[in-house]
Structures are given as structure tokens and as C-alpha cells.
Amino acid sequence: MRYIFRYGVHVAGVSFAAATILTACGGDGVKTAGDTVSISGSTTVLPAISRAADDYTMQTGAKIIVNAGGSGGGFKQLAEGQTDIGMMSRDITAEERARFARHSFTVTAIGRDAVAPAVSSEIYDAGVTQLSFEQVTDIYMGRVDNWSAFGGPDRAIFAVDKEAGRGTRQVFARIVFGDKNMQAPGADLVVGSNNEEQTALAQSDSAIGMISFAWANADVRPLSITTANGAVAPTLDNVNSGAFPITRDLLIVTREDVSGQAKAFIDFVLSPEGQTHVVDAGYLPVNK
Amino acid sequence: MISRAAKEHIFAAATRAALGLSVCILAFLLGAIIVRGAQAISLDFLFMPSRDFGSRGGISYQIFGSLLIVLTAGLIAAPLALGASVYRSEYIKNTAAQRLFDLALYGLNGVPSIIFGLFGLILFVNIFGTGLSWFVGAVILAIMMLPTACMATISAMRGIDTPYRENAYALGLTREQTALRIIIPQSLHGLVTGLLIGLARAIGETAPIMFIATAFSGAGVPSSLAEPVATLPTHILALAQQAADPAALQNAWGASFTLIALVAMFSLAAFFARARLLPLSQR
Amino acid sequence: MDFTRPAPPSGRALRSYFLISALICAAICAVILITLLGQTGPVLSHNPASLFGTVWNPNLGQYGIIPMLYGSIVVMVIAMAIALPLGVLTAIYIAETRSARLRGIIKSALEVLAGIPSIVYGLIGVAYISVWVAKGLDLQTGRLILTAGLILAVMILPTILTLTEDAISNVPVIQRENARALGLYRHEVILDVVLPHARRDILAAGLLALGRALGETMAVMLVIGSLDRLPSPIFNVLSSGQTITSKLGRELGESAFGSAHFSALVLMGLILVLITLTLTGAAQWLINRRPNGVEAIYD
Question: Which CATH class for the B43-282 domain?
Fold first, then answer.
């Protein structure tokens, strides 16, 4: 039996040693050891980066860890030194910059995306295929609560909102509502990722939500935007030409102490080969 | 006024209905997990890395990461639980102090799992600056396992008859020697059982590790202590949020089935450990 | 290394190893509380009044925790309202049945049920229960306060069932026999003799289950809908909501460490721990308390 106890002592020794190493690895922020690149942030940017990372890993053997968490979380983790690259689907806010004034951040656009108000296919098929900014705002502010107001069926509108820190939400709110921090008292459900938004819209038969083009499908239909000059359809061509108004750059952010390995990966994403992954993910490439 | 006999029948019917409902719930849960899980499981699924945010490919790194975190947690918790249990059962003789110690353990046991995650996020990830680290996850899970492991060990030590201690003292052994030669060997089954039960619980935990130890994709075999890994519970979380995609949902069921199989494995091991490791003196 | 004859560790080294381990185990709970407390500063100094409001909008510095607190309590009440009667009635059946085999089967099935990780309950909630609720009640979404309550009821059922069954089985046979001899029906024996005798342990089981229900995160977070508002009307459980745990699970990753936002979340966590610790403490006190008076004679 005493051998078992002796083993126990060894185990204790190993765990204390491990704890010491861990603390040594800690220090002020710079965390990833060796040639691992860690990336986290917006679920909008994620599909493009994740595809590119898989390819890059296959080609070079470099290890790239990609994590979700939203634009806010992505910036926060980068700024605090927990990751090498942050993914953001909105700009860094003044508050965020002020909080981490001791660091300087480099923002690189790796692709372009458009957000559209999207509805359940039942509503789209019933004839609601375009809305103006004012109409969408009315829905989210709780001023209009029935699809019949927009020529749809006599059915209550089920408004799906997104968590405040999400890039999609902030871009949508800034351009459509006119204020990126505007709350939506008319919302009936709040979701986080694009996945959840897609699921919620697909499961409902009278929902409206905000979704990135890449996530639209047969059950989740993006709407045209009614403007003074007619309706603008949610197509990539219209985004390219600048006609579709709710667009944003897909950004990756780095700190001044960016590692060589992370830089190499960013260069790969910006290369023609890397940009194919951006296109595969349903977005527009940057260099066009 | 209903007669007493009628009331008797109503009451019997109510308990029977309750039993029926409980059994239905149970059957549904197990049935759903087994049927949906079995459809998703294959050798490829278990041994391939995941692709496309988990909706394609397998869960090999998730299995690896989960086992890595909980087994490390077990190794950290074992010596602490052993030492603390010896102290509690052989050194603390004051009833009030015993009560206080037990209360601290029960309290720790009652802390909600997300609070452990919050604690780890504040103390390790931010104040100590470790960043996302699988080892921090293991430390946090080790803390969560401590009450279970301690309580099982302490109760095994309580089961050792007093004559064992008296004989040891009569032979001139010190308290430390008695602990080392008599108490610990005679109560190891408690420690092992408690640890295994703790492992079975820990491997299914999501909330304590989701902010501090895990990554969404790309995490493989970590090359240092300060790297995140992929785990089964966080993988299921990511997949459950894509419930509209049948492929993702299918993989979520497969991962759930695998996770429950691992839980069952640790629980069964605990069951056998309790039976096999029990010292002859206590059989 | 010479494994055959390890040198015995010195007594002092051993003694301090035992002591240090014990101190660590005993202190962790307090360390957790202090760590949390240490992070609540920013929101308390920033805008403490807003904490008691019903609006959560970090961008405007509004951190009303009332909707989350309310959500946690309502979800817990729904879960208990379903699981307590169901669990106690089932436990009565199991404890009173003559079939040892049925008992054995149900007991082991319960252990399996208790071993299912909460994230799997969340998956079941997303894939089945929320879909059923939405279809059955003809609603736009199944992500509701009610759904979260239903899932939690299923999750705490094993806890209530196992502990209640133990409590009922522990009631001395002599009590039942005396009651039967007085000519009482079986339901009268149970309701008037057995349950009153076991009430303290059943209450403890209920408190432990309450603590579990309050602290559960993953399953709730996936099905409750994340709406940081009080439902309208206030008892409308068919609307989306938010609990303290689901709020933490959703937002911790996005708030910057040290900000008022983060500290408001930590404060909610602290409130949650204090409530669950009180519940656990009360349950332990009930279980540990020695029976007195007449009961002590029979026990």
C-alpha cells in the first residue's frame, strides 16, 4: 500500500511543478507559446477565418485556434493579451480604445458583408419582400405589431433581436435605427450567434430578424430595402456597387506586439488563395 | 364528502400516475439520447477531427480534451483530498471545528457551476494573466471535485475501527505514522471512489470551463499548459446553437452519447472500485 | 529509483502536508466569495441605484438586475411546482411497493438520470421540448420561461425522488404498523403518519433541489430566450426571459474585465452564490439536526 501513497506524493509533486510552470507562462498578457496562433471574436467573421485556418494548417502545419465570442469578446481578449488576433464585424468603439489606450491596434479588412432584415419564409411568400428603415424601426420599437400593416398576413410580428455586443446588431442598429446602442422594446426574443438567429427565424412562421447575407437560406429570406429611389435587392452585386446600404467590413484586429506567425496567417487570408475562403463563406473579397 | 375508501383509491391512482409519468420522462430521455446518439456514432466519428464548426467530421480532439482536463483535475484533487481528509478525521478533535470544516465542504459543493467559471475567469485568466488555458480548467474542475472526494474519503476513514488506531499507538507509532501506515491504506477505496464519482460529474461540466479553458475550433493537442483545448460539453453547446442544421444536430447527439458513455464509464469504475478496493478488514 | 523501500517522509513534513491540504479545502469557498466581492467595486461606485431597476443596457450604464432575479425565481418556482408533487408521489409509490426488483430498477435508472450532464438536457430542450411547447401552444418560439422551468423540473426530479424516497423508507416500520393497527387506510397512514414523520428530510430535499435549480446554467441558457425584460403581464411565463445564470453564461465572455458591465455581472453571481449557500446550509442543518421528543424514542 505504501507504494500507492508514494505515487500520491509524486502526483502532488508533478501538479505543483505544473502550477509553477503555468504561472511562469502567465506574466503580463503575452500568452501563446511557440507557433500557435489564437483567434477569437465575431461569429460573422468566423466562417471565413475558420475555413482559411483549416487550409493554412493543412499547408503549413501551423496551429491555429479559432474561437467564437462576438466582436466585443474578440476585441477584449485581444486587448487583454489572451489571443493574437481578434475578429470583429464592427469598428472598435471609442470607449474600447480608451480602455486600452496603452496598446495600439491595427485593423485589417479581410472581406465585406451585408446585413439585411430577414423574415421567415412564410411571411416572404405571403408578399412582404421589402421594408423601409422606418418600417423596420417601427417593428423593433414596438410601434407596429402586425404583418398586415405591411401587406402581409394578419399575424403578430415576432421580432428577434440580437445581444448588444454582437457586430451584426451594432451595424444594423447604427444604419437602420440610427443609433448603435438603441434598445428594442418591441423585441420578443434575443439570440446570440448568427446560427441561433437563423434557427429562430426558420422555426417561426412570422418572425423578423437581422442576419448576415451568408446565413440566409430557403427558410430565412432577406428583404429588399425600400428607399426613395425604389427597392434595393439584397444581392452581392448591390453590395459591391454600394447600392445596398447595410454593409460592413469584416475586420481582424491585432495588437502592436503581433507575432510573426499571426502576421503570416493574415497575409495568407489576404492572398488570392485565402480570399477564396472568404468567398466560400458567402462574403465579398476585399481586393475587388 | 368522499368516503375514505374512495380517497384511498384516488390516492393510489395518483401515485401510480406519478410513477407512470416519471417512468415516461425517464424512458423518453434515455431513448432520445440512445436512438439519436447511436445513429450518429461511428468509428470515423470517434476518431476524426471535427470540421466546418463541428457539423462535419468527428470529435476526436473533443474526447481527448475532455479526458485531458478531467484526468489532470483528478491528479490535482487526489493529494489535496487525501491530506485534507486525514487532517479532518485524525487531527481535528474539536466538534465545532469539525462542523466548520464540513460546512465549508458542503458550501463548496453547493456553489453553482457557473460561479466556478466566473471565479476562474477573474482569478486565473485575468488577475494571474494565464489567458485561456486547459490547465486552469483542470484546476477549477479539481476544486469542484474536492468536496465529493473529501466526503467519500472521510467517511471511509470513519469506518476504520478504533482498535486499529489503538493498536498502532500501542506499538509506539506517532500520529503521522499511524495515518501513513494504517489510516490511508485502509481508506484508499473511499478516495478512489470519491475521485471517480467526481470525475464522472466533472467531465459533463460546461459552465466552469467555457470561459477559461476551451476553444471553438482548431484546438488540438496543446503544446503548453496555457493553451485551450476542445471539449465535448462545449462542443455540444456550439452545436446545440445550430439546431436548424440537421448535420450539426446529428453530431450534437453523437457527442452527447459519447459524453454520457464516458460518464457511465467513470461511474461504473467507481462502483467496482468500491467493491474491489475495500480492505479485507471492512468486508 | 528504489521503489522497494521508500524512505518514510518525516512526521513534520507529513503533518504540514495534511494541514495545508485541509486549509486549502476549507478556505476555497471563502476565497471564491472574496474574489467575487473584490470585483463588484466598479458598478457599486458607478451607478448603484440602477441595479434595482428593470432596464439592462450596459451602453447607457443601466444595470437593472431585477428582470434576471425575477426570471431565476419564476423558473425555479415552475420547476418546483412540477417536480415536487411528482417526485414525492412517485417516491411514495416506490417506497411503499412490495417489489424490491422494481425499486432496484428505478433506483439505478435514477442514478443514470442524475448522471446526464446539464448540457445534454439543454440539447434535449432545444431539439424537443422547446419545439413541442411552440407547436403545442401555437407560439412563435419555444424559448420561453415555461420551457426553462419544464427542463429544470426534469433535471431536479432525480434529486427530489432519491432523497424523498430515502426519507420515507427511513420512517420506522413501527410507526406504520401502529397506524395500520388503528385501522387507518394506507393513504391515511402515508399522509398523516409517514409524511409528517419524514417532513424534515423532504424539506431538506426540496431545499437542495431549489439550490440546484437556481444554479443551473447550460440547459436554461439554451431555452429561455435571453430577453432582459420583465414579462408583460408579469406572470406571463409564455414569454422569453432571462435568469442570473443564463445572463452570466451569455454575457461574461463579452464584457471587459474590470468594467462596470463586468462587475454588474459579478454582483449578480455573488447574489446567486449567497442564495444557494443559504439553501444548502439550511438543508444541511435540517439533515444534521437530531430528532427530539417522541420521534427520538421511536428512532
Answer: mainly alpha
